[in-house]
């Protein structure tokens, strides 16, 4: 799939290999959803990831000197921001092996290193992970467990509808530029949240 190295709209300090902004998610799969092959979420920079990246870059003390794990990384934008903000170790994982590979490729393009094996993370970053009832329930369980194990949990969410707001405190809000072909809007109000 052809991608081009493109500055992130809300965090232009970071460039990612992305699809052009006239293409939607399912345009890349021939308009089909196939359960055996995840759609290429990694080919786009989603609003929640952009908001997390901006927050981390503007508040480096959140991650500086800490072990950070970007969960469901997609393009890796939040992981790259953490590395640029001085995290001691950054890992990025995703259920889709193509996303994990994209995150490593994007990290290399930004002259940072992102690993793939989390080692007792102190900070968990998760952008745009509450997009369906099933995924939201799974992510809530994973994030609550991480919080019980003393990890700081930061989430970027543009109001996807399945976000368990009662478990979080809002830290910041951004108006995030997004491709209309992807979101049916040119920007989304997106918050960064800390799990209580």
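^ Assign residues to that structure.
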């Amino acid at each position: 799939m052809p991608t081009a190295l493109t500055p992130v709209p809300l965090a232009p300090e970071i460039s990612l290999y992305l699809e052009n902004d006239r293409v939607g998610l399912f345009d890349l799969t021939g308009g089909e959803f196939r359960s055996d092959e995840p759609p290429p979420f990694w080919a786009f920079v989603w609003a929640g990831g952009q908001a997390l990246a901006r927050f981390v870059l503007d508040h480096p003390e959140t991650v500086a000197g800490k072990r950070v794990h970007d969960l469901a990384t997609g393009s890796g934008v939040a992981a790259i921001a953490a590395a640029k903000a001085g995290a001691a170790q950054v890992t990025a994982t995703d259920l889709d092996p193509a996303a994990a590979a994209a995150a490593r490729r994007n990290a290399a393009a930004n002259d940072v290193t992102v690993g793939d094996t989390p080692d007792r993370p102190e900070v968990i970053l998760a952008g745009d992970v509450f997009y369906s009832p099933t995924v939201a329930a799974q992510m809530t369980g994973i994030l609550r467990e991480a919080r019980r194990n003393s990890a700081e949990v930061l989430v970027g969410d543009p109001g996807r509808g399945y976000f368990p707001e009662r478990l979080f405190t809002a830290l910041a809000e951004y108006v995030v530029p997004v491709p209309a072909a992807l979101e049916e809007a040119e920007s989304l109000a997106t918050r960064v949240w800390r799990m209580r």
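The mean pLDDT is 92.
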